[in-house]
């Protein structure tokens, strides 16, 4: 990739680090000429002037038709079809995730339903890991049966379990790594190996695609496409957005699917607001490395603190040496320079004589924190400037009935901490006080 300065000097971007690239993005993009702005200008126009009927007609026939018309400067028509702020965000996220293209959506769920929507049709089947984000579970279990799309959850901690659910109708393997909320780590390369074996027996139309939700790690900690994923999805609302001000979602993957994703977005309508695209491009992406670096340092300290605390049953944090997936995490979760980057989320369970008592103790802790802690806010979401604490079983994963929590890998008393940018000792002080009430 190269960029052209005003005096026609070509700058080779590939000579610079990814962290620097996230600040500059593409200085001059095919999508929009704004050479004299230091930050990208914000665009807010639902419709675009078309000059002539002929140019309007050309715009419509070129839209989502890159196979025939190629890339290059788009003819903008209407925000729901395409618009410069979103296009620039997509270019930059595709670059950092090592994908050929990206298409943005109004939310993470907009992105997830779009990629699953284009890869499946009635009669198809989707295999997922047992543990998934609550609304993804709800999409697969409450809505997909209406379309006759079957959902088959398995324990992908052993990727060979794919074979136990595999049928000729299986079209997608979908998982999160680390998984929400328990932070289980799935071996991406191993899943790739298995899917390659299966695909070698199939014709191109019926091949299985691997889709990975990389929201928990962010591209700073993990680039699944490099490890074998076909597609990556993100909730931009979380670590990439970074400040908790805007919702968004994105799908990254192979170029040949870009048109379909854009058509899906046009017709199902989950369009990212350009003002949110601009915020994520201007604030979220450039600060991703420094935010993540700080959050990882803090998360490691908090995880160590909880790990030895007498009232804590266990802690799942990919950076803890006694975490069951530590070795795999070390292999998969690395920053742009190759350092181990275990992320900003922690899952832990407080002790109790029974699951019910452990749950009640967890609720006590969280209720105390909600009222007394300065640095921990009881709230869902993650990747925020502020540390957020929540109870998955009654909040983000409340779609799971209590008797199915264990099947979904969720402890009744499990607590999720999404580390923010505060001083680590301040958060630990608040946690220590909150643990005292148990
Ligand atoms: C939040 C979240 C989503 C959904 O994203 P929204 O932007 O809230 O729609 C999907 N996957 C994971 C892992 C999440 O944490």
UniProtKB/TrEMBL annotation:
Modified residues (N6-(pyridoxal phosphate)lysine): 238
Any GO BP annotation: transsulfuration
GO cellular component: cytoplasm
Pfam families: Cys_Met_Meta_PP
Record InterPro entries: Cys/Met-Metab_PyrdxlP-dep_enz, PyrdxlP-dep_Trfase, PyrdxlP-dep_Trfase_major, PyrdxlP-dep_Trfase_small
UniProt KW keywords: Lyase, Pyridoxal phosphate
Gene Ontology molecular-function annotations: carbon-sulfur lyase activity; pyridoxal phosphate binding
Keyword flag Lyase: yes
Gene3D superfamilies linked to this entry: Aspartate Aminotransferase, domain 1 (3.90.1150.10), Type I PLP-dependent aspartate aminotransferase-like (Major domain) (3.40.640.10)
Keyword Hydrolase: no
Co-factor(s): pyridoxal 5'-phosphate
Similarity section: Belongs to the trans-sulfuration enzymes family.
The name this protein goes by in its record: Cystathionine gamma-lyase
């Amino acid at each position: 990739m190269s960029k052209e300065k005003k005096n026609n000097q070509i700058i080779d971007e590939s000579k610079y680090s990814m962290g620097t690239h996230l600040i500059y993005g593409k200085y001059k993009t095919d999508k929009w000429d704004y050479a004299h702005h230091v930050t990208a200008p914000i665009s807010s126009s639902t419709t675009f002037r078309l000059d002539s009927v002929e140019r309007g007609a050309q715009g419509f026939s070129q839209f989502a038709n890159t196979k025939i018309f190629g890339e290059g400067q788009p003819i903008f028509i209407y925000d729901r079809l395409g618009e410069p702020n979103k296009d620039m965000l997509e270019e930059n996220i595709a670059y950092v995730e090592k994908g050929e293209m990206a298409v943005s959506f109004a939310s993470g769920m907009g992105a997830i339903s779009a990629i699953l929507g284009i890869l499946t049709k009635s009669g198809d089947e989707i295999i997922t890991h047992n543990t998934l984000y609550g609304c993804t579970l709800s999409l697969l279990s409450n809505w997909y049966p209406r379309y006759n799309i079957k959902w088959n959850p398995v324990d992908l901690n052993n990727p060979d379990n794919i074979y136990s659910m595999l049928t000729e109708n299986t079209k997608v393997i979908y998982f999160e790594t680390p998984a929400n909320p328990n932070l289980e780590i799935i071996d991406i390369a191993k899943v790739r190996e298995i899917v390659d074996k299966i695909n070698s027996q199939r014709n191109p139309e019926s091949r299985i695609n691997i889709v990975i939700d990389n929201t928990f790690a962010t591209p700073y900690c993990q680039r699944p496409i490099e490890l074998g994923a076909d597609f990556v999805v993100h909730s931009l609302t979380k670590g990439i957005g970074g400040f908790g001000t805007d919702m968004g979602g994105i799908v990254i993957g192979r170029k040949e699917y870009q048109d379909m994703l854009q058509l899906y977005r046009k017709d199902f309508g989950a369009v990212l607001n350009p003002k949110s695209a601009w915020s994520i491009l201007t604030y979220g992406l450039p600060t991703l490395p420094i935010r993540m670096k700080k959050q990882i340092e803090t998360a490691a300290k908090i995880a160590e603190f909880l790990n030895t605390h007498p009232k804590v049953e266990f802690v799942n944090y990919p950076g803890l040496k006694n975490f069951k997936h530590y070795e795999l995490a070390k292999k998969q979760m690395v920053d742009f320079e190759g350092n181990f980057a275990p992320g900003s989320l922690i899952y832990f369970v407080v002790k109790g004589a029974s699951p019910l008592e452990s749950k009640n103790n967890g609720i006590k802790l969280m209720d105390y924190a909600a009222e007394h802690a300065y640095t921990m806010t009881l709230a869902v979401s993650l990747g925020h400037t502020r540390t957020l604490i929540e109870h998955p079983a009654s909040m983000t994963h409340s779609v799971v009935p209590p008797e199915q929590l264990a099947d979904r890998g969720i402890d009744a008393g499990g607590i999720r901490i999404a580390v923010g940018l505060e001083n680590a000792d301040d958060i630990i002080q608040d946690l220590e006080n909150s643990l005292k009430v148990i």
